Amino acid sequence: MSQPDADWTAWGTPPSPRYEALAARFRPVFARIRAGAVARERSRDLPHEAIGWLKEARFGALRVPEAEGGFGASLPDLFGLLAELAEADSNLPQALRNHFGFAEDTVGSPAGPRRTHWIERLAAGDLFGGAWSETGPAAVGTFATRIHRSGARWGLTGKKDYTTGSLFADWIDVVGTGESGEETSVVVPAKAPGVEVIDDWDGFGQRLTASGTALFEDAPAIGEPLPTAERFPYGPAFFQAVHLATLTGIARAAAGEVARAVRTRNRTYSHAAGARPSADPQVLQVVGRVHGLAYAAGAINGQAAQAVQRAYEARIAGLPEAESHAINVAAEIELAQAQSVLTGLVLEAGTILFDALGASATRRGLALDRHWRNARTIASHNPRIFKDRVVGDYAVNGTEPPFQWKIGRVPEPRA
């Protein structure tokens, strides 16, 4: 019997004819990242070096058109590569989620000085973080952070939470309230005076994403504010698709690790169905189930990516508003459906892999628990119970999905 290839996969057809050539540029980097993933997890060592490798390879320029110095990846290509990166270390694609959101908005934006400026920075390999959510006293749908005039320039003052990836970034994309009470956004240099990013994220999963606090005190903004209403309308679907790609990579990592563990395991039980775990049909069934769950997650991820690609194409084609809106609604519904089902698949994979192993598999040094912990943490963003309700309301009543996910304090009850 031939020895299985350590890199064997059966994840289906690549997302595009050029995908393999594109992926070949980055797989050596992914391999280096994978080699240190468990050690980083055990010691909670933030992946500054790994982010640096990706930056050096200009991974962040994937969506920039080739004619403008990037790689011209389609959205299915992008989400396929993010799944591969997540298979190596799921902290990395989440840390870059805000970067790719900013890149997506920029790539599809109208020609002009603003687009030219940021496309050049993206093509050069610069990385962007994000600071949107707040946990302070602001009510749902509002921001306490202020974007204000500061002499001849614009300034930014406030506190943001869940600023994923900003600690690794060159620039931070921030949403706040403008001088007239409008919701708007600016970009600030991550290392500028008046900017402080704190690594205080203490979640039990995705522990290395630097999803902590950012403080801004009259931080200098670059250029003019951009109202959020003018930003890419399929943003919610895009950001959810990044989560789906990350979850897909987690399932694939779980599948690969359980197969390798069973292959080399030399302890068994008196009541086992085979002489060795690698010959035990019940154990092999578990391994096969985990691989099947990972395959199904990847298939859903690929299908969802096509929906986001259609929304991007509608934006750049300048379709009539009604037609473009219908495509965005369809993308949002597809992503909501995908999120609900795919999340369950990956959480199951992270749970049942232990059924193929012994108690020794729970040792902290192996960090096999990270797959479930990381998947559960990602699944807690934009909770899936609300997505199921949104899909049901659309299916039954034709109610369009909301296009902004916002959190904030619940209003105090009236006396």
Automatic annotation (TrEMBL):
Pfam families in UniProt: Acyl-CoA_dh_2
Leader sequence residues: none
Keywords associated with the record: Oxidoreductase
Keyword set includes Kinase: no
Acyl-CoA dehydrogenase C-terminal domain: residues covered: 243-381
One GO MF term: oxidoreductase activity, acting on the CH-CH group of donors
Name of the featured protein: Alkylation response protein AidB-like acyl-CoA dehydrogenase
